[in-house]
Design a protein that fits this description.
5-stranded antiparallel beta sheet, Helix Hairpins, 24% strand, Elongation Factor Tu (Ef-tu), domain 3
């Protein structure tokens, strides 16, 4: 099947009603925006018309005042008439400047009002898109190209949010999920190589994700499998074992990991004598560790045999007799 294959259709009257209400609110907000824009445009045009009319009157008054000044100098009109026309020209000039300022202020105010209404439209549109997606998600699609493995719901069944509706897998694109004890997961990082045992072959891979939280004392580590290495029988939900290569050490003295003692610590261990009939307590400095072995920095030599089981019952003894 393809990623667009429809697996099932669900219905939710509440979601559908919410989507319809959100659409109605969006249309109302868009209508309010258009109405506001029309009113503001009209107000601005009226103000611009008034400003243009006053400016025209101011220019005419200025021309009349200039003519009256010349006529008054020639004694053709009374001086009082010249002063009146000059005063009228100055008054209309100030009024024209005031009307132009009102036009600029109205334009800025219109921009602010439209921006506020546009924000309400955008908010209503975002809510509608969210509600619309919720309704569309009622039509459950595969999401990826693959094989349908599980469809646990029945016709007419009610499902809770978060319920598993279907499972689609890509058999050729599997990953391994390892649960590492939290005490051993501190050194695991993305990119480290790993070996996955499928019980039918060993698969190579690398760490692709380390979970940030601890669950039930373990850390989930995802391993991306290398392409072309899947053995026959590899499938989803297969029980596996895995080994992550943290670091490779050469020429290391090591023993099996004891039941006690932490890495990079100093402990007391019982070392067997040459005849194998006694075990003597010796101080041992531990180094780095793996899942099953631990490095010996001092206290033991190659060929020494030690007791790895819990010896806390004999903490007060330095020598043990072995039968």
């Amino acid at each position: 099947m393809t990623k667009d294959t429809l697996l099932l259709e669900m219905s939710n009257p509440d979601l559908e009603q919410n989507a319809a209400e959100a659409e109605s609110q969006l249309k109302a907000a868009q209508a309010d925006y258009q109405d506001l824009q029309a009113n503001l445009d009209k107000e601005l045009l009226d103000q611009q018309s008034t400003a243009a009319s006053v400016e025209s009157q101011s220019e005419q008054a200025q021309l009349q005042a200039e003519a009256d000044v010349k006529l008054a100098k020639d004694g053709l009109i009374p001086e009082i008439q010249m002063k009146k026309s000059t005063l009228q020209a100055a008054t209309l000039g100030k009024q024209s400047a005031f009307e132009k300022q009102k036009v600029r202020q109205n334009a800025l105010s219109a921009q602010a009002q439209l921006a506020a209404q546009r924000a309400r439209v955008n908010q209503a549109q975002a809510v509608y898109q969210l509600k619309r997606r919720q309704v569309e998600n009622l039509h459950v699609k595969a999401g990826i190209d693959g094989v349908l493995q599980e469809l646990p719901v029945q016709v007419g069944q009610k499902v809770a949010p978060g319920a598993n509706l279907a499972r689609v897998a890509q058999p050729d694109h599997l990953k391994a999920e390892l649960k590492i004890p939290e005490t051993q997961a501190k050194d695991v990082v993305k990119g480290q190589s790993a070996q996955i045992d499928t019980r039918n072959g060993i698969v190579s891979g690398h760490v692709s994700r380390v979970a940030p939280s601890v669950q039930d004392g373990t850390v989930v580590v995802d391993v991306q499998l290398d392409r072309g290495t899947l053995p026959k029988g590899a499938r989803v939900d297969l029980s596996i074992d895995g080994t992550i290569l943290i670091e490779r050490l050469d020429n290391v003295l090591y023993v099996g990991r004891p039941a006690y003692g932490q890495p990079n610590s100093k402990i007391q261990m019982f070392k067997l004598t040459e005849n194998g009939k006694e075990a003597v307590r010796v101080p041992v400095q531990l180094g780095r560790s793996s899942v099953s072995t631990i490095e010996i920095l001092s206290g033991l030599n190659v060929g020494d045999k030690v007791i790895l089981s819990d010896t806390s019952a004999w903490d007060g003894h330095d020598v043990l007799q072995l039968n």
